[in-house]
User: What shape does this take?
Amino acid sequence: MSSMSSLIPRHAGLYTDFYELTMGQGHFLSGMADQPACFDHFFREVPFQGGYVIFAGLADLLEVLKDLHFEEEDLKYLKGLKFQEPFLEYLRGFRFQGRLHSVREGEVVFPLEPLVRVEGTLFECQLIETLLLNFLNFESLIATKASRLVLAAQSRRVVDFGLRRAQGLAGIQASRAAAIGGVDATSNVHAAFIYGLTPSGTQAHSWVQSFPDELTAFRKFAEISPDPCVLLVDTYNTLKSGVPNAILVAKELERQGRRLSAIRLDSGDLAYLSKHAREMLDAAGLHQVKIVASNQLDEHLIKSLLDQGAPLNAFGVGTKLVTGQDSPALDGVYKLSQMDGEPCLKISENNAKTSLPGMKRIVRYTDPDGFFYADGILLEGEKSVETVHHPHYPEQKSRVAHCFPENLLFKVMEGGKAESLPSVTEAAAYAKQRLSKLSPERKRFENPHTYKVGISKKLMDLRDDLVRKHQK
Assistant: This one.
């Protein structure tokens, strides 16, 4: 297998916003570039009006960071943009040497939590902001959407059909993230190759149209295609020709000792058509033939189809998965929390946007029944606490002394060298296991219960002291 770095084979040092480099030069010329700093990556709102996010994108990020540098061609380009020669010489010898702590890929996470903590020089921490946000925000968004689709499908198969509707090369990362979110396979052969995913596909309407008639098209496809054989039955008339012709081919396959695996519906009233198709298949003794649905599906439509009793066995989801409809972006941000050994924060007139200072960790508290109860954001040196406080309303607090504490941040990179990370399959299994510990009320699509995320008293006091200091 290849790796994510093949998507950015050269010029990774330029995979950033221009102001990161202008600030970097300013810090360098001010003698500040190599001062120690710490940044946090977190998000403020859950997308899709949901109750949780599935964290993804870490392995792709680390794959690029471990070889992040500037090539001579990059430096020549920056020189043409009037960057100064001493700074360009500094970039010539640059290699990312920072330390990262992160939650695991596939972890169930919530707003305000420092999901990734980056420690290093001020320049290197600042330089990777755009890259980090670009990878983690997007893959976490798509993994979350995929997770919702899988929940809606209620253990039925879900396949990613989205590459042709994705935003360019983002479709490759989308397929990876969708797998972490729980989808079973992908139509994306490139992503299947580089990430070790399961490729899957049936046929297009053009296949059926390219033959003199539908039955000939089905017979030829069944003859040459490897099992499992799936036939697309809605090119002309689903119930009058598509399903009857599929039944004829299924019977021919049975005489050869083979089986038709499924039929696929890609248009029309999927609930109505699937019910009648099921009746026709069963009447022909083809109980084992499954029915796959596609065509602009999302979690809400899948839930509606199953609530209507549609006898569907699998779903192919494209556009609304890989584009993250109806939340086109995760609002993840990256904030400086410590500079030269001193905690710092960003203050906003909107209290919700005042950041949390210092080096922090996340502790998850699981109740005696085995469900996630609350998460606490603590200062790095703090031991587990008995109570966590609402980040914005300190009078609201939750007692967690009765719960089992679990650390969520782990070192994943040291000195620019990445730790061994789980595969996509392992991350997907982890996400599934963690979601099982989240109560149903927090996973539902309509008005999910808000999961409790609190801060320790020490962190609250540190933040409030710094706010008062800066407002004098």
